[in-house]
Write a structure and sequence with these properties.
3-stranded antiparallel sheet; single chain; alpha/beta; 9 helices
């Protein structure tokens, strides 16, 4: 049996289409026509020897073979892109100061730092994990080169909106909600110390719905929030980013709907140097790859 040699351009079209949820969007992003991407997918199915996509509603989702190819395709593209970046940026060196919220600290920051270090070992990164308000103060004061923050009332001169995340009510796996709450038995709420965007969204939504609440646990760290939720002290409001496996998103008519929350990337300089630009690209790539997992987690 002859060996299959995959075309990485074809693999990129396949992976990008799945991650964007649309092969028309993938064609636009990759600068190709929709018909060209369709031809690539047909070629890929012929190489694999079985269908890699199936219809689901008005869109396409991967088959079992497609899911396997998607996992390997991401690894192939990551290695290819790291090699290309390393060759192009072999002389990059310097120091970058990066700020990031706790939500992204465990997984996404690890992926970003690993990719960047492998491609640009001579660039040193100083990462700061902090609350939203602190990160905005640091980027405004010129003490960070890049900062990833949730959208708030404070902006910076050089920023770009990346995407919106759904806010969710989150509780322990065995959380039991009442049909109604009273002033004698209000909803127990777990939140960051004020000021906190998500705390404000939670209390505003509860107030509008005339649901009494009490602050059952107040904490300055996300790990403390997760511990309190896991202990059954109450519910909290966060996005699905960094959600521990032992906690769950609560889908209940008892609790009010919550808005979307934007994510913004701030730059210290309008035209940053090549090292900062490359780190920005890796952050965007990593966030895009997380999208599919977050959508499954929230379902």
């Amino acid at each position: 049996m002859s060996k299959i040699t995959f075309d990485l351009d074809v693999i990129r079209s396949f992976v990008t289409g799945i991650e964007l949820g649309s092969f028309a969007k993938a064609a636009d992003r990759l600068g190709r026509s929709t018909s060209a991407v369709s031809a690539q997918l047909k070629k890929l199915e012929e190489q694999v020897g079985s269908p890699i996509l199936r219809k689901s509603g008005r869109g396409m989702v991967p088959t079992t073979a497609g899911e396997t190819l998607l996992a390997y395709g991401r690894r192939l593209l990551e290695l290819n892109d790291e090699a290309a970046a390393a060759v192009r940026g072999v002389d990059l060196e310097g120091w970058i100061r990066l700020g990031i919220p706790e939500d992204f600290g465990e997984r996404i920051l690890t992926d970003v730092l690993g990719r960047f270090a492998r491609a640009h070992p001579r660039v040193r990164i100083e990462a700061r994990i902090a609350r939203n308000a602190t990160l905005l103060e640091l980027i405004t004061a010129g003490q960070l080169d890049l900062a990833l923050t949730w959208d708030g009332n404070i902006s910076s001169p050089h920023s770009e909106h990346l995407r919106n995340f759904a806010l969710h009510w989150i509780g322990a796996a065995d959380t039991q909600l009442q049909a109604s709450y009273t002033t004698d038995d209000p909803l127990p709420l777990i939140a960051f110390e004020s000021p906190c965007l998500m705390r404000s969204y939670a209390t505003s939504a509860l107030d509008r719905a005339n649901i009494p609440w009490r602050l059952s646990f107040n904490c300055p760290s996300l790990s403390g929030i997760w511990a309190a939720v896991a202990a059954g002290l109450g519910v909290t409001v966060r996005t699905a980013v960094g959600l521990p496996q032992h906690l769950r998103i609560i889908h209940s008519p008892t609790l009010p709907a919550l808005p979307m929350l934007g994510l913004t990337l701030h730059r210290l300089d309008a035209e940053p140097d090549m090292a900062v630009q490359r780190l920005r690209e890796i952050i965007l790539e990593t966030l895009m790859e997380e999208d599919v997992g977050l959508q499954l987690k929230a379902a």
